[in-house]
From TrEMBL:
Record flagged with keyword Transcription: no
PROSITE patterns in UniProt: DNA_LIGASE_A1, DNA_LIGASE_A3
Annotated source species: Cereibacter changlensis JA139
Name this protein carries in UniProt: DNA ligase (ATP)
TM region positions: none
An example Gene Ontology biological process: DNA repair
Enzyme class of the recorded protein, top EC level: ligase
Catalytic activity: ATP + (deoxyribonucleotide)n-3'-hydroxyl + 5'-phospho-(deoxyribonucleotide)m = (deoxyribonucleotide)n+m + AMP + diphosphate
Single GO molecular function: ATP binding
Enzyme Commission number(s) from the entry: 6.5.1.1
Pfam families to which the protein is assigned, alphabetical: DNA_ligase_A_C, DNA_ligase_A_M, DNA_ligase_A_N
Residues of the ATP-dependent DNA ligase family profile domain: 303-434
Length: 539
């Protein structure tokens, strides 16, 4: 654990990419293989399941520190992080331990399902053996909140330097549904069994936001333009011993979309397609809200299968007849993709995402304005000569999204943030007019500067009307412009609507609360986007 704590400290004290990669490279060269394996797992989002909940941890930490629970609860919001609060209040350890990261994680995993007293005893014993730095990391592992400030791409780069294996090869080997409990470090980074890894996906290529004018990209003839569909990015694999659909988050979602199963019988063996999973109706994508009803369901009822059948719109061909095409130009990959799809019988839930025809950037900009009519977020621009890269690589793939929707609203409630913003009020609940009443309709916590949050925090402290635990009710006076990507009906909310990705664009100190938007404006937007608000009696 000491070696892992030293790595965390080295990564935490620098913002330089070269320094982070150097620290990781040294660690992957010198640490025990079991610790390397768990570090790779943690940095790629594979954390052990929580065996202790936060209520138990707060109570046990208070007892271990000899503090009343109320005092801990007062300190927690000030510190802003549960793991750090526990670390700060615990007495010095009475024993030393040289147990490895893998051993401590094994201890946590073994606590799952154990009686509360057994779990408490094991946690107390761990706290009594770990240094301050080690306790903090151990607490993070317990709570499931472990973050290391290192992208998976940087981790893969360091691992490539430590092992001498090419970065793209390693990135592919680290994909899929592997678990530290069922593999070894050597098996993970070494040559894998083709039969066992037949369903393994490739790392996804990602696009960067287009911030400059499109004209700066050069000749339009060098680019492919297609709609940026608003669904679930997926990778469909049809190999001799595997048919699988993976999400971009490396989640196996094959069983959640049973309508796609017939593709296993018709797609050629050795085919891997990058595509978007969409809810489909009348030969056109349905709004994301239709697909969202299916997200998170392990079993999809027949009603939803009928109302929102799944369809794949294919972007790219990564593998054809078992041949890895990722290094080939996009123009070549698209031609082969369209040939494969063109040879399929009609009626299958797969089609190519249409390439847009344009001879000037001005003409393409006109087409972009119609994106929402097609339930699209905007455009994707891809250089026809580009390879299928790993992760985000600026220059070849761009996303040219539409400007977001906006609404002016007033703050009704405020809550403090977490981490470095734990002492600031940053999480706000907003309201808009419903007749002559203000109705809460969304929350947002990002978009402003620290300086603005500090000013708002001072105002909240001076104008608090009521407290509900960490939440404060304030007079409806501060107006903000909010941005959001979509809107949908929601019987769970008093307003009858829910916004997608709301965030604060600016603090409207120039606008009085009497001039903010109304619920009727949002209901009109909802109706225009194809949805209908629920009847008031259903809210």
């Amino acid at each position: 654990m000491k070696r892992f704590a030293s790595l965390f400290e080295a990564l935490d004290r620098t913002t330089k990419t070269t320094a982070k990669v150097a620290a990781l490279t040294e660690y992957f060269t010198t640490a025990p293989e079991e610790d390397r394996l768990w570090t790779i797992a943690l940095l790629s989002g594979r954390r052990p399941k929580r065996a202790v909940n936060s209520t138990e941890l707060r109570e046990w930490a208070s007892e271990a520190a000899g503090l009343p629970l109320w005092l801990f609860e007062e300190a927690y919001p000030v510190v802003g992080d549960l793991s750090e609060t526990i670390t700060l209040i615990l007495p010095p350890p009475q024993h030393e331990s040289d147990r490895s990261l893998a051993t401590w994680i094994g201890t946590l995993i073994a606590l799952t399902g154990q009686p509360a007293e057994a779990r408490k005893s094991a946690i107390f014993a761990a706290w009594d053996q770990l240094t301050t730095e080690e306790r903090f990391l151990f607490n993070k592992l317990i709570t499931g909140g472990f973050r290391m400030g290192v992208s998976q791409g940087l981790m893969t780069r360091a691992l490539a330097r430590a092992t001498g294996i090419e970065e793209t090869t390693l990135a592919h080997r680290l994909m899929g549904d592997w678990k530290p409990s069922s593999t070894t470090y050597a098996a993970l980074i070494g040559e894998n069994d083709p039969e066992a890894d037949a369903s393994k996906p490739y790392p996804f290529a990602l696009a960067s936001p287009l911030e400059a004018e499109a004209e700066t990209l050069g000749a339009p003839a060098d680019w492919l333009a297609e709609w940026k569909w608003d669904g679930i990015r997926g990778q469909l694999i049809n190999r001799p011993s595997a048919f699988a659909l993976w999400s971009r988050g490396e989640e196996l979602i094959t069983d959640r979309f049973p309508e796609l199963a017939p593709l296993a019988d018709f797609l050629p063996q050795g085919t891997v397609i990058d595509a978007e999973v969409l809810a489909w109706g009348q030969d056109t994508p349905l709004p994301f809200a239709a697909l969202q009803k299916r997200i998170g369901r392990l079993v999809v009822p027949k009603k939803l299968l009928t109302e929102a059948p799944a369809h794949l719109l294919a972007y790219d061909l990564l593998e054809d007849a078992g041949e890895d095409l990722r290094s080939a130009p996009l123009a070549h990959r698209r031609a082969r993709l369209e040939a494969i799809i063109g040879a399929l019988p009609p009626g299958l839930p797969l089609s190519a995402s249409p390439a847009l025809s344009f001879d000037s950037w001005e003409a393409l900009a006109e087409q972009r304005l119609t994106a929402r009519e097609r339930n699209s977020e905007g455009l994707m621009l891809k250089r026809l000569s580009s390879s299928y890269h790993v992760g985000r690589k600026r220059g070849d793939w761009w996303k040219w999204k539409l400007d977001p929707y906006t609404v002016d609203a007033v703050m009704l409630y405020a809550q403090s943030g977490s981490g470095r913003r734990a002492t600031l009020f940053t999480d706000f609940t907003f309201g808009i007019w419903d007749g002559d009443q203000l109705v809460p309709f969304t929350k947002a916590y990002s978009g402003l500067t620290d300086a603005e949050f500090r000013k708002i925090t001072d105002w909240v402290k001076k104008h608090t009307l009521e407290r509900f635990g960490p939440v404060r009710r304030v007079p409806p006076e501060l107006v903000f412009e909010l941005a959001f990507e979509g809107i949908q009906a929601s019987p769970r909310h008093k307003s009858g609507i829910a916004l997608r990705f709301p965030r604060m664009l600016r603090w409207r100190q120039d606008k009085p609360v009497a001039e903010i938007d109304t619920i009727d404006n949002l209901r009109a937007l909802l109706a225009a986007s194809g949805g209908q608000p629920p009847h008031p009696r259903d809210i």
